[in-house]
Amino acid sequence: MTAQQRPSRGALIVGPPRSGTSLMRALLDGHPQVLAVPRETHAFEWCESTEPTQELMRRKLWAEMPWPDDERERFESTLHELLPGPAHPADALEAVVEGLVRLDPEQRSREVWLEKTPTHLRVLPPLVERLGQRTRVICLVRDPRGILASRVRRWRRSGLRAVRHFARKWARDDELTRSMEYAPEVHVVRYEELVSEPERAMRDVAEHLDIPWHDVLTEPQRDGENFGGREKFQGVSAVSRDRWRDELSGEQLHELERFIGPRLEARGYPVDERYVRPDATRRLFEWRVKGALQLLKLGWLRYGRLSK
Asked: Which domain holds residue 291?
């Protein structure tokens, strides 16, 4: 096996889906000291397969990626070498980075590799433990009403049942974030502050990643080109920050805030006092949230079997 060629430091972008993780990755993509993995890996979903390389390359984001010349075959060859069987998700991540670096030796000089998969938030502790103390995490936090509005536009399902389902998943992720956000490896970025004051927010991110400031950190890019994002904006835009006020119905807001109103307020997001739900009902909701989190944590135990 050839010597490791990837940057020795890793960084992960996580957060509830639709919370600004794509924008954060795009802002870091053009930095000369950052090697950004071009697509989400969702490593924990395929790393335990008996054929992990095939599982990754079957995923839509990777199967449809435009590979020049013979780069796909070379990339797969590296992954087969490094991942001959079931692996820890951290090892799978590092193998992907190693495969990308071997395609472009100039990437060896980068100081840090960067990967964005929002749902890696749900396996973050075992990931960071395995990747090492030098690993850095950028966790995006956004007003869940804004997240709900962006997801409602895509959902085929609708109605208050979908809102309640979203509330439980968001509250679980919020509970998980709160349990880790004061760790030195983790830096929390509020989406609203990122789009309102991008330079200030990105200077804090650069300091956390220990990379020098560069003006490109306020110019979102993807694969070397300007990144328009889902909003098709040029640069960083706050256009979607408060759009939920017009896009969510009063009934949807009522249903969401009656369950997670206290969590919204704890995050600094104001709520309508009319939406306060009786304590007994909210206690039941929080009990279900904490139960879901405990099940999530029990799932981490299996990664111990995949350690070298």
From this structure: 9-33+111-306
